[in-house]
Amino acid sequence: MAYDPDNIFAKILRGEIPCTKVYEDEHTLAFHDINPQAPTHILVVPKGPYVSWTDFSQTASDAEIAALVRTVGLVAREAGVAEEGYRVLSNVGVNGNQEVPHLHIHVFGGRRLGRMVPKE
């Protein structure tokens, strides 16, 4: 999957599409998902043009990597889900059901989330 500079997250980062911002720093932006799948559903995106965890882990700077990891923890604490528990999810590629070619981390919480992948 190639990076598409016109993907929805790139447009949000450029300010072309509004979002309900939760947190922002030099390297990351966190905002509420417009179609939440749990009482807390926040998306965390790096500001750089990274397609996936694979791309990000290979090419992002140490500062960008640290900022993304710290932002995920910070938004979970600020949203009040850290103590009871939350789920962090990033879909990668076709088999991972990635829909937007920009790395994004879902932070889900606020209720018991159940199994992520059903046993077969």
From TrEMBL:
<dbReference type="Pfam" id="PF01230">
    <property type="entry name" value="HIT"/>
</dbReference>
<dbReference type="InterPro" id="IPR001310">
    <property type="entry name" value="Histidine_triad_HIT"/>
</dbReference>
<feature type="short sequence motif" description="Histidine triad motif">
    <location>
        <begin position="102"/>
        <end position="106"/>
    </location>
</feature>
<dbReference type="InterPro" id="IPR011146">
    <property type="entry name" value="HIT-like"/>
</dbReference>
<feature type="domain" description="HIT">
    <location>
        <begin position="8"/>
        <end position="118"/>
    </location>
</feature>
<dbReference type="InterPro" id="IPR019808">
    <property type="entry name" value="Histidine_triad_CS"/>
</dbReference>
<protein>
    <submittedName>
        <fullName>HIT domain-containing protein</fullName>
    </submittedName>
</protein>
<dbReference type="GO" id="GO:0003824">
    <property type="term" value="F:catalytic activity"/>
</dbReference>
<dbReference type="InterPro" id="IPR036265">
    <property type="entry name" value="HIT-like_sf"/>
</dbReference>
<feature type="active site" description="Tele-AMP-histidine intermediate">
    <location>
        <position position="104"/>
    </location>
</feature>
